[in-house]
Write a structure and sequence with these properties.
8-stranded antiparallel sheet; alpha+beta; 29% helix; 39% strand
């Protein structure tokens, strides 16, 4: 069964590599990987396969901090007779808090290990609002950015729908610091994956 799941993930990777230069191709690969992850269960015959890191800290100024990181991967091509092929990261999620503020991030990687798509839900981008930022990349270059906001849930009993604030091939300079931070985070998660993958028994 494990071989079947890995074959499916590998097929998705090949399809993604061929179409990773377009927004539509990225969206399809994202949807396919999310579906594959949703099917990871003993009941479906696809045992879950991912690395998970749980961080529990008490931070100065903000108190209890918890972070849940999950990193999904696929097998790379291997030499004939190699029992445990090397892995490469395909998708990562991170859910964390600072005090009462909650954050969520997703990172989709292309076959070269570069970010193809980044999604974040954050209370930090726009004052008194919860924001969704989507970034699409082709071979590491930003090709589309979409920012949506709604009133901060903590200040409203019923959350409104997200409304588009900006979209286009460039992200407004106002958000450049957050953009750089997300790119740095994508690289740190890839390095974390390499470290964990290299330290596990195979």
């Amino acid at each position: 069964m494990r071989k079947t799941l890995l074959t499916l993930i590998a097929a998705l990777a090949v399809a993604g590599a061929a179409a990773q230069n377009t927004i539509g191709g990225i969206q399809k690969r994202y949807a396919d990987i999310k579906q594959t992850i949703a099917q990871m269960s003993e009941e479906n015959g696809y045992p879950p396969e991912y690395y998970q890191l749980n961080v529990v800290q008490n931070l100065p100024g903000t108190g209890p901090h918890r972070e849940d990181i999950r990193m999904y991967y696929e097998e790379e091509e291997c030499n004939e007779g190699e029992v445990y092929p090397p892995h490469r990261i395909t998708f990562a999620t991170s859910s964390y808090n600072f005090a009462a503020r909650r954050f969520y991030e997703e990172y989709l990687y292309d076959t070269d290990g570069k970010p193809a798509f980044i999604y974040t839900r954050t209370p930090d981008l726009v004052p008194d609002a919860e924001s969704e930022l989507r970034l699409y990349f082709s071979q590491g270059r930003l090709i589309w950015a979409s920012l949506k906001c709604r009133p901060d849930e903590r200040q409203h009993a019923e959350a409104a729908e997200f409304q588009e604030v900006s979209s286009g091939a460039k992200l407004p300079a106002t958000y450049s610091e957050s953009y750089d931070s997300l790119l740095a985070r994508a690289e740190k998660l890839r390095e974390l994956f390499r470290t964990v993958d290299g330290a596990t028994y195979k």
